[in-house]
Amino acid sequence: MIELISGGAASGKSEFAEQEVLSLNKDRYYLATMDGTDPSGADRIRKHRDRRSGMGFVTIERSVDISGIKEDTEGSVILLEDLTNLAANEFFPKDAPLPPGDVPLLFDLAQKTADRILGDFDALYERCEDIIVVTQDVFRDCQYNTYTDTVKAYIRLLSLLNIGIGRRSDRIFEVVYSAKKRIR
Predict the structure, then answer these.
(1) What is the number of structural domains in the chain?
(2) pLDDT score at 155
(3) The whole model's pTM is what?
(4) Which of 7, 42, 75, 145 has the fewest beta carbons under 10 Å from its own?
(5) DSSP string over the chain
C-alpha cells in the first residue's frame, strides 16, 4: 500500500502520518530526509525524534538517493518524511550550483530530477510492504509570480513528484490544521 499525506506547514501531517504507521502492525522505519547541517534543521530533527520516541521506529537518515538505503525493510512500513525536503536536497545539491535562470533548462532539470526520484521511490517500495509519504502543500501561495525561475522550477519538481506518487497511491489525505480529509 502507498499512502500520500499532504498539508501546509505545521498542519499536523507528520503526526497523522505517524498514527497511520502505528495502525499497521509491522516493523516501522522512519526515512528522514531533512539535512540537519544548519541549526534550525537540527532543531526540527530533534523535535521530530523526541515526538516519536517510544513509537518503535528505526530511523534512517537519508537526504538524497532513497533507493540506496542498506537496511532490510522487507515486509515493513516506511514513513518517508518528507518529500519536500528530498526534492530540495536532490534539486539543490550542495556541491553543484544550478544553472542560471534559463527557464527551459531549469524545467528540464526539474523533470529529470522527478524521474530519478520516482525511480528511487519505486525501488524503495519494492523493498517494503507499505510506504507512507508526507509532502507539503506549497501550491496555494499567491506570490508565485514574484518567485525566481529557480524557485518556480523547484515548485514544478515538487508538483511532478506529488502527481507521480499520487498516481501510485492507494490513499491520499490532506491535513489542514490537524483535521484530515481523505481525497482518495
Answers:
(1) 1
(2) 93
(3) 0.88
(4) 145
(5) -EEEEEE-TTSSHHHHHHHHHHTS-S-EEEEE---TTSHHHHHHHHHHHHHHTTS-EEEEE-SS-GGG--S--TT-EEEEE-HHHHHHHHHS-TTSPPPPS-HHHHHHHHHHHHHHHHHHHHHHHTTSSEEEEEEE--S--TTGGGS-HHHHHHHHHHHHHHHHHHHH-SEEEEEETTEEEE--
